[in-house]
Specification:
It is a single chain. This protein is mainly beta. Helices cover 4% and strands 39% of the residues. The chain has one helix and five strands; from the N terminus they run βββαββ. A hairpin with a 2-residue loop joins β4 and β5. It starts with 30 loop residues before the first strand and ends in a 7-residue tail after the last strand. The mean pLDDT is 87.
């Protein structure tokens, strides 16, 4: 994301402005233990907020609905992989038809 920083390590950085609500400061949102990114707005991680005790699996992936996001794992979250269950609308005479198709994660990798 253009408004986020992901830093490795747990030690606070010197001269790094962190505050939960002041303008111009960074806000600590997550402690992340495992992270995988394949592009802008496409990442998954295990992590927790500062108020939580346990890590949870989190997905941010543009264009993927919840049925698709439930299928993601660290092993299958790769550019070009396809997942079944994407709902799409088709205009038909008298209304719309919902059909289920596949979702491709990013562009297909070329060999």
């Amino acid at each position: 994301d253009t408004d986020s920083l992901y830093l490795k390590g747990l030690k606070p950085l010197k001269d790094f402005a962190v505050h939960k609500s002041l303008y111009g400061f960074f806000k600590l949102e997550h402690y992340i233990t495992m992270f995988k990114v394949i592009g802008a707005k496409r990442y998954i991680y295990y992590g927790r907020t500062p108020n939580e005790k346990n890590d949870s699996f989190c997905v941010t992936c543009c264009g993927a609905d919840n049925d698709i996001k439930k299928q993601f794992t660290f092993d299958n979250f790769k550019t070009g992989n396809t997942f079944y269950g994407k709902k799409s609308l088709h205009n038909v005479k008298g209304g719309k038809h919902i059909y289920v198709t596949t979702y491709r994660l990013g562009k297909e990798d070329k060999p």
